[in-house]
Amino acid sequence: MSLRDSAATPLPVRELLDALTSLPGIGKRSAERIAFHLIKASEEEAMALSNSIAEVKHNVSCCSICNNLADVSPCLICDDHTRDASVVLVVEQPKDLISLEATGMFKGVYHVLTGRIEPLAGIEVGDIAISELLERVDNSSLNAQGATINEVILGLNPNLEGDSTALYLAQELEARSVKVTRLARGLPSGSQIEYANSQVLADAIQGRRGMHQE
User: Is the CB of residue 92 less than 8 Å from the CB of residue 162?
Assistant: First the structure.
């Protein structure tokens, strides 16, 4: 019997376990370890975690331009006039942006789709931030620094869903006479950008190529 199912476990602890196991990647054993750590921790340490969660919920939202997580809008990247806002690197999730930004190799701006087209999972074109990207291309006033977008780099994960989403975007963007490139295939097929090391990602940025080149 787990702690959560035991009548000897106080109700607040059972509720904490329920909350922890609802988080992705947290099973019963992990939840119990975290719960015991919080119970044994000082009130100051435990409340610091609580306050951090509240701070994120109250003050972090999405950048009005690139859709990345931010506590100001436009975000610091979109508002950085040393960056080339005419070049936009499209990624699936904020964690991909963080991984690519850590290389220090990309000096343009980003667009976060917050997903990819996955019909089998019920995720269609309208469920991710594709229309917002196309609006940035069509109307420079909606892009960072009011710049006209000349190149869109497709930095989606190299798997079936990522490639399908990239092909859809390429068709839409090429119809708008925008240069479309993709990250070089130094990234192994089926891998995730967030798990690639900085050198692999830096090479992928530098070696980007036309969307239809092998």
Answer: yes
Instruction: List, for residues 125-139, the tens digit of each pLDDT value.
Output: 999 999 999 999 999
Angle at Cα 171 formed by Cα 100 and Cα 210, nearest 5°?
Answer: 50
How far is C-alpha 88 from the chain's CA centre? 15
State the burial class of residue 193 (Cβ atoms within 10 Å of its Cβ: 0-12, 13-18, 19+): buried
In 3D space, the residue among 63, 85, 104, 96 whose CA is nearest the CA of residue 162 turns out to be: 96
**Alpha helix positions (H), the chain:** 11-21, 28-40, 43-59, 94-101, 130-138, 160-174, 198-206
Residue 156 to residue 111: CA distance in whole angstroms: 11
Query: Parallel, antiparallel, or unpaired: how do β-strands 209-210 and 151-154 relate?
Result: unpaired
* Count of residues making up the chain: 214
The residue type of 73 is S
Domains of the chain: 3-59 (1.10.8.420), 79-210 (3.40.1360.10)
CB 91 within 8 A of CB 106: no
Q: pTM for the full model?
A: 0.76
